[in-house]
Every structure is written in structure tokens, then in C-alpha cells.
Specification:
The complex is a heterodimer of chains A (153) and B (259). Chain A has 153 residues and is α+β, with helices and mostly antiparallel strands. Chain A contains two helices and four strands, in the order ββαββα. In chain A, strands 1-2-4-3 form a four-stranded antiparallel β-sheet, covered by helices on one side. The radius of gyration of chain A is 27 Å and the shape is elongated. The longest helix of chain B is centred in the C-terminal third of the chain and has 32 residues. Classes of the chains: A alpha+beta (153), B mainly alpha (259). At the A-B interface, strand 1 of A face helix 6 and helix 7 of B. Chain A: One of its GO terms (cellular component) is mitochondrial large ribosomal subunit. Chain A: It is found in: Mitochondrion. Chain A: This is Large ribosomal subunit protein uL23m.
Chain lengths: 153, 259
């Protein structure tokens, strides 16, 4: 694992440090602000550097990476809980990766609306039927044009 | 490609299917790439195992396996997302996590490849989780994250066991990182693990401030600590004896429990 490890000290002339089985995980996030077409936004662990991100993406994901820029996002320490103690949101590092070779990337819509018909004889079907009946009962009289009983005779 | 890779992913994660798929039609070719350890290692000699994902190896050896064709998955950034059929589903099926017993049967190359498969799966699940939080929607089957984490931890333990055994056999060293028993300023003796420095210890000012010895003036405090500890231990034993005596008085037929 990459964290909790004491990496060997580097002095001039030492061999290149290689990490086997890295335990660093990247999270692709949808950008909050509008980013150029070739920029992908990641949340990366604090210990990773720009070179680490570049090598990671090139070697493991086979993605041609041009430039990587990173920044550290401070997680707020302002909110307080019911005991009036400050609650800290964790800090995280954000990497903006620009793809090489003119590639573009748009964040896809991962939760599209799907028409879901519940399975026959299942709980979901019974629940949906029940909800529909309830709604039907709550509806006002269509013969009176949906007007309440407060008016009229 | 998407379908087979998704099923390939399901199979890496749920290993009970391995034996089932050993002898089956060629359509399940790519999934079997995961289970056939022998063939993979023989084909991968000379190539770096880091880049190619495990389901990418063409298997053409004789024996139980038919000739298959697989392509290296060049999906790039698409690997951060599930296959498009699973987008918008409420539940995504996944199998059981790897157990240490099952992992011990695998070769080192297989474990290395499995680590990267699990790593990519975890990245995908983390992206999904974050996007679900962003869209204020429930993440489908969050237990997959826990399963992948557990598999990775078990893989790590298996690899550490193997490294330990190898080191013991080759060098006789019990611990990978050298250390020593040291006494700190407060009189406690603990296992201090050595750290690598560029300069010797007598030139290291911060290290010398740590003081791996107990000064004379700390001895009364240590004596007090020992006294308190002995007092508490005596108190607990007396309490036990008194409780037992009271029980004997009330219920004379009780046999004293062997403790």
C-alpha cells in the first residue's frame, strides 16, 4: 500500500522509485465551474503529486495526459453540531488534467430517467397499486369540475 | 465490449463463478481470461504486467480452454464509469468479495493484476458515489465499495505473508524494517522502528532532543505509577474474592468457579 509507507530516502544517483500495487484512488468529478473541453477534473489523495497523477493515468488507464495542475481544497471548519462543536469537512486535493492528442471529454449523465415496470407479484407492484388507489381517492369529484364540497348545496 | 467487460468485472469480483465457466462456450471467452491462471502467466512472460488488465489476454493454449480472442480494453477514461446498461439502475448485482483463502491459491502475477482490477473498480465506484451525491440521488448498491475494500485488504495481507516467508527463508530477518527496544523519557519501553536519515544520529539535532533514556528526576513518577497499578490490581482481586465469599454465603451449594 502507498500510504503508511516509509519510502527510501532519495539521494542523487539513486534508482527511480517504483511503487507496486498503489493504494491511491482517483475520483472523477463533474466540474463545478465550466472547464475547457480537454480538461478532466479529479479528486486525488493529498500525497499524490502532478507527476504521480500523470504516470497513474498513463500507465493504468492508458490515457494520454498533457499537463496536470493541482490545488488543495480546504474543507470547512465553520459548521457546528448539536453540541456546538466545530465539525470539520475533510480537505482534499483537486487535479485538473489536460488531455493530449486533441482528445476531449464531457462528463456523462450517469443517472438517466428509466421507465421501470415493477415485477409481477412483487412488493413494489403492490405498493405502487396502493399508492395509485390512494391518489384516486384523494381526487375531488370530476362531475363538479374538481371543485371542493365547501361550495354548493 | 461493454457487456463482456461488465460481466468480466462481475466475475473478477464474484469468484464462485470461476469453476462454472472453466469449460464453456467461446462466447464467454473474455470472462474466462480471469479464471485461467496458467495460460495468462505463460503468455505474459516478457511483458510488463502493470499495463494490461487481466481480461485482455488472448488464450490459445490447449487443454480445457478453447481458443479465444480478446482485445485489450482501450477504454481510457470510460473505465471510470460503469457499463452504460447499468446507468440509472437502482440495484447492480455483484458477487462476494475475495477471501484470503481463495487469494492464497493465486500466483503472484495474478494477484498483481487483480490488484489493478480492484483498483479500477474502486475508482469507478468512488466516481459513482460522488456523482450520486452531486445529483442528490441514491448510489446503486453501495455495498460494492465495502466488498472491494475488503478484497484489497486481504490481497495485501496475502502478499505480505509471502514476502515475510521469503525474507525469513533468504535472510533469516523476522522484521522487514529494522528496529530496537528503547526506553523513552517517561520510562516506557517500546519497539522503536528505525527511520532512514541522510546524516548520522549524533549530527541530528531533532533526533537528539527525543532522548531515548529516562532522566533521574522521572524515577519518583515511575514509582508512583507502579504503586497505583499495584493498588488497582490488588483492589480488583479483593473485589473478586469478596463477591465470591458473598455468593458462597447466600448459596452454600455453589461450587467455586475455576478462574
Amino acid at each position: 500500500c502507498a500510504y503508511l509507507l516509509r519510502y527510501p530516502l532519495y539521494q542523487l544517483g539513486n534508482p527511480q522509485l517504483r511503487i507496486f500495487r498503489p493504494s491511491w484512488f482517483l475520483t472523477l468529478v463533474r466540474p463545478g465551474k465550466e472547464q475547457p473541453q480537454d480538461t478532466v477534473q479529479f479528486r486525488i489523495p493529498m500525497e499524490m503529486t502532478k507527476y504521480d497523477v500523470k504516470n497513474y493515468l498513463e500507465k493504468i488507464y492508458n490515457v494520454p495526459v498533457g499537463v496536470v495542475r493541482t490545488r488543495i481544497q480546504f474543507g470547512s471548519n465553520k459548521k457546528r453540531n448539536h453540541l456546538n462543536q466545530k465539525v470539520k469537512q475533510p480537505d482534499y486535493k483537486v487535479a485538473y488534467v489536460q488531455l493530449a492528442l486533441g482528445q476531449t471529454f464531457t462528463f456523462p449523465d450517469i443517472f438517466p430517467e428509466k421507465e421501470r415496470a415493477p415485477a409481477e407479484g412483487s412488493m413494489e407492484e403492490m405498493q405502487e397499486k396502493f399508492m395509485e388507489d390512494e391518489k384516486q381517492r384523494q381526487k375531488l369529484d370530476p362531475r363538479r369540475g374538481g371543485v371542493t364540497e365547501w361550495f354548493g348545496l | 465490449m461493454a457487456a463482456s467487460s461488465s460481466t468480466g468485472r462481475v466475475l473478477t469480483l464474484c469468484k464462485q463463478f470461476q469453476n462454472v465457466f472453466r469449460i464453456s462456450s467461446a462466447t464467454n471467452a473474455r470472462q474466462r481470461a480471469v479464471s485461467s491462471a496458467k495460460c495468462q502467466t505463460s503468455l505474459l512472460r516478457g511483458t510488463s504486467p502493470i499495463v494490461t488488465p487481466s481480461w485482455s489476454n488472448p488464450i490459445s493454449s490447449a487443454g480445457q480452454y478453447r481458443a479465444l480472442h480478446t482485445t485489450i480494453s482501450r477504454r481510457g477514461l470510460e473505465d471510470f464509469f460503469d457499463s452504460p446498461e447499468n446507468w440509472g439502475e437502482a440495484n447492480v448485482k455483484s458477487g462476494a468479495p475475495w477471501t484470503a483463502k481463495q487469494l492464497r491459491t493465486k500466483s503472484n502475477e495474478d494477484l498483481h493484476k487483480l490488484w489493478y482490477v480492484l483498483l479500477k473498480e474502486k475508482n469507478m465506484l468512488l466516481t459513482l458515489e460522488q456523482e450520486a451525491k452531486r445529483q442528490r440521488v441514491q448510489m446503486p448498491s453501495p455495498e460494492r465499495l465495502r466488498k472491494v475494500e475488503r478484497s484489497m485488504i486481504r490481497l495485501e495481507t496475502v502478499v505480505k505473508e509471502r514476502e515475510n516467508a521469503l525474507r525469513l527463508l533468504q535472510t533469516g530477518q523476522e522484521k522487514g524494517r529494522p528496529g530496537a527496544w528503547r526506553r523513552n523519557i517517561f520510562g516506557y519501553v517500546y519497539w522503536y522502528r528505525f527511520k532512514e536519515y541522510a546524516i548520522p544520529w549524533y549530527m541530528n539535532r531533532r533526533y537528539k532532543r527525543k532522548r531515548f533514556y529516562t532522566p533521574k528526576f522521572v524515577e519518583p513518577h515511575i514509582r508512583l505509577r507502579i504503586e497505583n497499578y499495584l493498588r488497582e490490581r490488588a483492589r480488583n482481586e479483593n473485589l473478586k474474592k469478596r463477591r465470591l465469599a458473598k455468593l458462597q454465603e447466600r448459596f452454600p451449594q455453589i461450587k467455586a468457579p475455576a478462574s
